[in-house]
Amino acid sequence: MTPSFPLSAIQSFPIIEDFMLFVSFVKQRKSFELTKSKMLKIADLKALNEQLHHQALYTNPKSQQPNYPNLELFYHIGLQSKISYIQHPGKSPILKINPEQWDF
Question: pLDDT (tens digit, 9 = 90+) per residue, 46-55?
């Protein structure tokens, strides 16, 4: 018999809450601009990190996305699971949330 968990129990895990925060942060903006190398911008990394349960501790004002391991993980989980995708409408690429994959 497979144990089942109510969705509310799963959402109460801090890492899940952090991922949901990441998705909400991206979803709030109509255009979440990325760097030319398709990474999150430093200002956005700092703002998101401050809100996480599990923050990256060893960062400095110039830290890039790989220095924020949870945000790096969430970024790639989003892309690989098709929850998010990258568009190239103009100069800068933007990160978008796929409403067909994420309707919370």
Answer: 999 999 999 9
